[in-house]
Write a structure and sequence with these properties.
This protein has eight helices and seven strands, in the order ααααβαααβαβββββ. It starts with a helix and ends in a 7-residue tail after the last strand. The chain is of the alpha+beta class.
């Protein structure tokens, strides 16, 4: 019985630690995305758009980051065309970025946020958290120059 309690307690502690973002972020947004391993397409897109230095800059930035699975929802021909069009790619990527460090606790209090692209991102908290039509799947991934919230769909500016 004591072993069961110890294993259960350790499991709860491990789950709690895994769900808690790092207190002292040691990487910028780009390097955090690279090390996460789930943003290969996003990182490639940021490189092709010439936004690496910007997202490595002082910030702070909030990035609603589409996962590789989110990019996989876009038909290959359409994604290839987007990746080849630097102006269109930049417009799409900057639509995913909000100036300032907006933590999840703040996002849920908002109805919209202005992207650095200039468009307004609708925020809906009636059933989970949605930014435009993308569902936020993970929050508060800290970086030295901001925060990343993972989304399941690539948002397209209006």
């Amino acid at each position: 019985m004591k072993l069961f309690k110890l294993v259960t307690t350790l499991g709860i502690v491990a789950a709690s630690v895994a769900a808690t973002p790092s207190i002292a972020a040691d990487k910028d947004i780009v390097d955090t995305a690279i090390s996460a391993g789930a943003f290969k397409t996003l990182v490639t897109a940021v490189q092709k758009a010439g936004l690496v230095e910007t997202l490595k800059g002082k910030g702070p930035f909030t990035v609603f980051a589409p996962s590789d699975e989110a990019f996989a929802k876009i038909p290959k021909a359409q994604l290839d065309a987007l990746l080849a069009d630097k102006a269109a790619l930049t417009k799409v990527l900057t639509y995913h970025v909000v100036a300032g460090k907006v933590m999840a606790a703040d996002v849920v209090k908002m109805k919209e946020a202005k992207s650095v692209q200039g468009g307004m991102i609708a925020i809906d908290t009636t059933a989970g958290v949605k930014v435009d039509k993308a569902t936020v799947t993970s929050t508060d991934i800290l970086a030295t120059n901001g925060v990343i919230h993972v989304i399941d769909t690539v948002m397209m500016p209006k």
